[in-house]
Structure formats: structure tokens, C-alpha cells
Amino acid sequence: MLELSGGERQVQRSFNLEHARHSDSRYLHFTPGLAQQWLNDIKLPAEWFKGKTILDAGCGSGRWTYAMASLGARVVAADLTEAGTKVTQQATAGFENVAVLQANVFNLPFKPESFDMVVSWGVLHHTPSSKAAFDRLAPLVKRGGILYVMVYEKHNPLKFFLTDLIRRVLRRLPEDRRYRACRWLIIRNRLLHSLLANRIICALEPSSRDPLEISTLQLGLYDAYAPMFNHLHSRREVEAWFREHGFDQICLTRPVRFSSRKDIRLYGECGGSINMRGVRL
Prior knowledge:
- The protein is of the alpha/beta class.
- The protein folds into two domains: 198 residues, 3-Layer(aba) Sandwich (Rossmann fold), CATH 3.40.50; 69 residues, no CATH class.
- A seven-stranded mixed β-sheet has the order 3-2-1-4-5-9-8, with helices on both faces. A two-stranded parallel sheet has the order 6-7.
- β4, α5 and β5 form a beta-alpha-beta unit.
- α1 runs parallel beside α4 and α2 crosses α3.
- It is globular and about 50 Å long.
């Protein structure tokens, strides 16, 4: 039994449902193409991964674990949820180079400098403190190894204020009802969607009305609305975390997209997510 705070237990319950429904999202179907998606995301050559020992901290339903294992890395996948570990085990059952465990990112059972790479993609901002979680992961990287994180970016304060009001209402619902409620945030009317899109997190219903596309959007909205913690950060803030722990060669794997003050306020410098990696000196 993991020792968790009340907020962490809420996040665990929310993501347990999400990972259990991984087949509802086209992004979480496990195919050989995931390896190329991962390489496009992290901007490293495929040969770098061969023989490396990697921690996937917050593996979710295991798509990046699957991708890195298929590239020849030895991957330790850890997740807070029982559903996440179960799905990851099933998805990687054909690999001998994967180990999966249920663990809290704040209490991982590893010695410092255990890994050639630590990955935490879309996880830190769903913890009680993104910076404190980062501080736990950074020492696990070997000298000369790589740390790679993706966190939500600060932008459009009005949108996130209104979105958080909806979150507070939805969090009063049981997880399955909250998931169903997110279907109402998929807007069929294009004009209504255009009016709402800069005010709350919502989605436009695809013209194809394809059930998998709709369930993909619904699961994405559940991901945005369900967890208690949804911290936002700036590029300079995250870069400072890396430098504090002695990382060099710090870079964005998705470059800065916006430079005007107005656009940065609305969309963030990087368009909503900060994908950053660095090498530990």
C-alpha cells in the first residue's frame, strides 16, 4: 500500500480510470510507430537508446516505455496507479528488457545515479509540487546521463481560471461520471467552439463523428479536468530547475513558437507544453 496524501489519492483514482480506458485513445494504441513518435518527441537518434538503462517515471499506460524498449533500452517503468502498471505490463509482455512497478515519484526505491536517462512526460505538474518531484528525479540520473521532462506551460490566465472553476465542480463527481461529463465539453457547433476555446479547455467535435476520435478527445479532456493538481510553468522556470541540479546542454525538443507579449500571454512561448532535456555534468 502506497503512503499518499489526500490530494495524491485523488490523482491516483483519476488516472486509474484514465489508464484503464487507454484503448479509448488512438494515441495509446501500441504499434511499432510509437518508437518513431518518441524519437520525434525527444529529438535523439534511435541508436542512442541501445543498451541504456532508463526510468520512465510516471509511465501511465506505457506508450513511451513500449517505444524505448523497442529501441533496445532496458526500461524501468513506474506509475502511481494500479491500472497504469497493469496496462504497461500487458503492453510490454513481449519484452524481456522491461520491469514495471507501482510507486510514488516522491518515494522511488532507487539509488542516486542509477539511470542513463530519466523520463517524466506529463507527470510532474500532476503532483503536489512539480519542483519537489523534479528534485527527487534529478539525482537518479548518472553523470553524463539525460533527464527529459514535459510539463504544462503557463498561458491564458483567464482560460485556466475558468477551467479550474469547472474542475472544482467535476471533481465532486465520481470518476466514471466525471469521464462521461467530459463528453459535454466536445462542442459540435463551430461558432460556439470558437467562442469558448480561449475561455475554457474544450474540443471541437470532428466532422467525421468517428467514435475513436471522439473518445480520444473525451479522454484528453478527462486528463485535463480530473486531477486535483494541474500546475503551469514557464520555460525559464523549468530551465532553472535543470541548472540547479548541474545539468548542461539544456534544450527544448519543441522550440519556442511565440515571441510577442500578446501571443505569449495567450498561448505560452512553446504553445502550451515545455518539453526539455539536459545532460547531467
